[in-house]
Amino acid sequence: MNYIDEVRVYFNHIIITKNGEEIIHQVANDNCTEVVKVIDHYFRTGEIKLAKSIGTPYYTTLVSWLKQQH
Fold first, then answer.
1. SS3 per residue for 19-67
2. 27 within 8 A of 50, measured Cβ to Cβ
3. What is the reported pLDDT for 59?
4. Which of 7, 12, 44 is nearest to 29 (CA)?
5. Is the pLDDT of residue 10 over 70?
6. Cα separation of 34 and 51, whole Å?
7. 65, 62, 36, 38 alpha-carbon torsion, rounded to 10°
8. What local confidence, expressed as pLDDT, does residue 34 receive?
9. Could you tell me which residues are beta bridge partners of residue 26?
10. Of 61, 4, 55, which is closest to residue 31 (Cα–Cα)?
11. Residue 52 burial class via C-beta count within 10 angstroms: exposed 0-12, middle 13-18, buried 19 and up
12. What is the pLDDT of residue 41?
């Protein structure tokens, strides 16, 4: 929890280089479940992982995943 403000951008954004310029790019705006998973992983391990872009309805997926975790 100590560094969440500093690392949260890394869960769903990457830096790409285009024409020699670095640009911050959002992985997806429909991958909330995957973002929750990688934040949970960060809290458990301290390891930063990039969320996947899945493009599926995320509310039911998130509820199912949370039920399995707790």
1. CCEEEEEECCCCCHHHHHHHHHHHHHHCCCCCCCCCCCCHHHHHHHHHH
2. yes
3. 60
4. 12
5. yes
6. 5
7. 40
8. 85
9. 13
10. 55
11. middle
12. 92
Q: What is the pLDDT of residues 13-64, one digit of tens each?
A: 888 898 999 988 888 887 778 888 899 999 999 999 998 887 655 566 667 7
Rounded CA-CA distance 12/43 in Å is: 16
For position 33, what pLDDT does the model report?
A: 80
Token reading at 35 = 């973002």
Q: How far does Cα 65 stand from its chain's mean position?
A: 15
- How long is the chain? 70
